Amino acid sequence: GEGGGAPAATIAIEIVWRVGKQLAPLLEALGAGAVSVPEDGCWTREQFSEALRRYADSRELWLKNNRKRMGLDELLLGVAGEGEASTHLDGLVDRLLRSSQVCHRVSAPQGGAQGGVRRTLRPGRPPHVQVRTDTRRGHAVTLAHGLEAYGVDMEALGACLQKALAASASVEREPQVAVVVQGFWDVAVAEWLPRGGVSA
Known about the structure:
Blueprint: E1 12-18, H1 24-30, E2 42-43, H2 45-59, E3 69-71, H3 74-80, E4 86-88, H4 89-98, E5 102-109, E6 117-123, E7 130-136, E8 139-145, H5 154-165, E9 169-172, E10 178-182, H6 186-192
Antiparallel strand pairs: 1-2, 1-5, 3-4, 5-6, 7-8, 8-10, 9-10
Helix pairs in contact: 1-2, 2-4
Region (Disordered): 108-131
Pfam family, one: SUI1
Protein name: SUI1 domain-containing protein
């Protein structure tokens, strides 16, 4: 068997931003093949940073007296909007991200999906999972709410938690969907969920 109650599969969640029309001049200036935009049309912060670094390198925009700052040319001023004429790379990335739509990319294991993983793009930041204790019929229970937003098979998660914690676990549908574990397991469940790719 598997040791340590590790999850059989993980859910990957990435915060990404839409590569909008405002970046078209930058992509055009970099040229085809220099950077690629994924199928879903979103980049991670690192991809934004890499594209801007490549552009600054190709145009020699780094300041001579401070190699950590770049001077903004007309194209970058148009893309980033109003602001200082020179900035750090991270500052420029922040300016671009503020004007881009934030999304989150979820890759969840699913039988029958290509490669066994279903990938979805959802608007906004990822929802938070709440782990708390409560009582049911006079007994202490631990509840994990918000997991369904990640496409988690709640029954399978309940079975994994039951095995990992050696405690009874089930799925509660009312008043909201939650995995219910018998006993005070809030710390253990909160520590176990990130191993499966979900931050509690």
